[in-house]
Amino acid sequence: MRIIADFHIHSKYSRATSKDMTARTIALWADKKGINIIASGDFQHPKYLAELKTVLEAAEPGLYKIKKERFASRIVLSTEIANIYKQGGKVRKVHTLVVMPSLEAAEKFSKKLDSLGNIKSDGRPIFGFPTKDLVKIAKDICADSMIIPAHVWTPWFSVFGSKSGFDSLEECFEEQTKHIKAIETGLSSDVLMNRRVSALDNIALISNSDAHSPRKIGREANVFETDLDYYKIKKAIETRDLKRFLYTLEFFPEEGKYHNDGHRLCKVNLSPREALANNNLCPVCLKPLTLGVLHRVEVLADRPLGYKLDKYIPQKHLVPLEELIAAVYGVAPSAKKVQTEYIRMLQVGGTEFELLLDKQKEALLKITEERITEAILKVRSEMVNIIPGYDGEFGKILVSDKKKRVAGIL
Ligand SMILES: [Zn+2]
Ligand SMILES: [Zn+2]
Ligand SMILES: [Zn+2]
Q1: Ligand nearest to the CA of 211
Q2: Are 212 and 17 in contact (CB under 8 A)?
Q3: Ligand 1: distance of its center to the CA of 74 in Å?
């Protein structure tokens, strides 16, 4: 069966997250979106782990479901850990996903982390030991764990980040690199950008939402042709099996909030080429720019723009339905009439992914008005223009009648 999976979200126990991010509401929204496997998020947090142990029951291999509910979605135990430490004379800040197939393993991991630092104050805890030690801890507890560097190109908290990252996986993970089989591309980069870096040829690229509220669940995801089975999905990822790992669902990378270079407060938004022409300094305040993901990929890439590997897991770009409706109406996604139409479409039309990916024009026209139908179809054929995001500011999508998106403009 087709399985859509999102391995990275946060519970209400993480900072700056919605209080609605409980296991039950997460599963409910996964159903609305059409996600088959959704991350628990934050599983090492003692209060959340206690909640998970109460509300979850074992389902298919390595997966859980909510007790006494008819939700179709399954929950996989997943969390994100921050490591902040010094290496090679520089401060490094790296976020990493840890995915585990059982509550027993999750509990052991939680206990081990509890002995090494504070896991109570934040669902995404911070530790002072190196990221490579995190790999060893997780693998020693459960050999079937997946350890996945998160949003690898974002400037502040990632393995390749311009501010506090590394230039290669080996530099960060050393003898543990062999356990890194996949990386998360993050909202601001996509498959084509990552495949310009030949050092990543043997690494799977996955995409997740990193949602902090229910409606953001699945804004990026992974699509498999397998069974509901943690081990089969892990194998599909790790072997990069084109028959089993079908494609990733990605933001247009320009939409991500760290795509371009710039300064948010100075309202300066520059392409890498423009930034370089200015010595990477802000033309307004003259301080160093926050270099975005496109710039960082350009620095580490050894292949030209537009390069395509012979065999790679492809991607589909999408725009979340709420954003698309908002773009059509010319208002913010939080506007009442966007919300009303979004909820109505889910009620009469099926899941969000069915609407965005599967339904043909005739079917869509029965569900919603013509201009929203047209917007969905235009995104499928990449007829969009995007003002790129920069320095924490999301990009802006404009659905276009005439122009097809050009990828990776520098
Ligand atoms: Zn993170
Ligand atoms: Zn996160
Ligand atoms: Zn500035």
Answers
A1: 2
A2: yes
A3: 23
Other residues' Cβ atoms within 10 Å of the Cβ of residue 33: 29
Residue 408's pLDDT is 54
C-alpha distances (whole Å) from 135 to each of 17, 96, 126, 129, 171 are 26, 9, 15, 11, 14
Angle at 62 between CA 228 and CA 212, to 5 degrees: 85
- Closest-lying ligand to the alpha carbon of 14? 2
**All structural domains of the chain:** 2-254 (3.20.20.140), 320-399 (no CATH)
> What is the chain's length?
410
pLDDT tens-place string over residues 95-122: 999 999 999 999 999 999 999 999 999 9
Provide the whole-model pTM: 0.95
CA of 81 to the centre of ligand 2 (A): 9
